[in-house]
Amino acid sequence: MMQWREGTVEQVRGQWPGAVEYAVRLKPAGAAAAEVAGDDVVRALAYTALVGEPQVGDRVLLNASALLRGLGTGGLAFIVAAPDRLPADPVGSPGHIVKARYTPQQQMFMAVDEQDSPHHDVMTGPLATAGDLQGMPVVVADLHSALPAVLAGIRLDRPQARVVYLMTDGGALPLAFSRTVATLTAHGWLAGTVTVGQAYGGEHEAVTLHSGLLAARHVLGADLAIVIQGPGNVGTGTAWGYTGVAAGEALNAVGTLGGRGVAALRVSDADQRDRHRGISHHSTTAYGRVCLVAADVPLPTDPSEFGLLVADQAHALVRNAQGALRVRDVDADGLDAALRAVPVTLSTMGRGLDEDHAAFLYSAAAGRHAARLLES
After folding, report:
1. 176: which of 46, 106, 186, 361 is 20 to 30 A away, CA to CA?
2. Are residues 229 and 133 in the same domain?
3. How many domains in the chain?
4. Residue 70 shares a structural domain with residue 125
5. Which residues are within 8 A (CB) of 273 and not within 5 positions of it... i.e. 6 or more apart?
6. Residue 152 structural domain
């Protein structure tokens, strides 16, 4: 159930394309203020495309459910409306594809694949209609935190490559929630973004991952693509109850469309949960059981005891996989320096680069391998 709160904007804490974070003082309502970490001033996020830009002093209505539950990635309040300062209607929005469908905040977009799109001719052209990615390498990963690491590996060998990020709808639906994407785009590390399914807010919208991949190649001219869900992975500790299972489905889409799939392993040498130590069960299930096509599984050279453990796990994954997975050894020279040069703070499950180095190293290796596929 949604938990409502009312408050007043006190301060702008930060902003990036599509979003503004505020400090909001909650209106006294019984024990409500005490429910939020003993304070009556909370962090609250506004998506400008939905609610405009509230000003200091404005009354705002909040969805405080995640904040009150103390969630991690999404553990802040969201501004539902500034009722005394409603945004003007958008000018000239001919699209008719609805996302966040049949919710109170559903929106209509011009999708790259719909009939009125200026790109419809491309999307109905022979290559797109045939579903031909022309062998484009596509890196697929589980967690959003892998994105900058994958890009670091790509740019180490192919800094001029045009890379497009496709955000699926397993985590956050608005692309604007990701400050990582905003920063990577501002630094020129991404040539474009496509939001697919119910996710929205990319440079282009696409109805499905399949049409999104074709748009990345034939509309945005991508050399490589990266497919990862938005921030806020959902997991239940069960074999199948996690949103990252869609990584296997993404590889199936890549294979169906004639791309070259690269499976970035979710690896950790710091996670205290057995199911995520070494290669996470998220990767073994998504890649080993859901993926039914050919895909590469990159492994950085790592002669350490942990590296040998992961190598054994990876070879077992490949042997038992439903699809035609192949282990690919990747030279790790330079990957650490590349990771330390990314323009965003690397963090996964609350751990930084030096706290969980393997988590980022294996993603960077996947990026480097994909970049080297451009040479073959």
Report:
1. 361
2. yes
3. 2
4. no
5. none
6. 120-373
